[in-house]
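FORM 12-B: Structure-to-Sequence Request
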């Protein structure tokens, strides 16, 4: 048995991109930033580390996200991780 679940709470980096696939399925892509605060061992100062996540929604969730979510808003997302590989030309 295995588990593939991710939970993100962060800010939307740019307005979601809503597209309709040739099959009629709707798809939304957006970038989301999450922050982690840690103490620098050398200086003793607190530093923020930002991680960027590319999130994809399908069908009804895609339609809802496309309608209501805008850049800068805080968003809570639950889902599964899927890594895609591609080669640049």
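FORM 12-B RESPONSE
SEQUENCE OUT:
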């Amino acid at each position: 048995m295995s588990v593939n679940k991710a939970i993100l709470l962060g800010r939307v980096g740019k307005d979601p991109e809503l597209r309709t696939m040739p099959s009629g399925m709707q798809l939304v892509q957006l970038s989301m930033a999450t922050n982690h605060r840690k103490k620098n061992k050398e200086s003793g100062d607190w530093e923020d580390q930002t991680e960027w996540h590319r999130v994809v929604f399908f069908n009804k969730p895609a339609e809802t996200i496309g309608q209501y979510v805008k850049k800068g808003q805080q968003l809570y997302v639950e889902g599964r991780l899927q890594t895609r590989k591609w080669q640049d030309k």
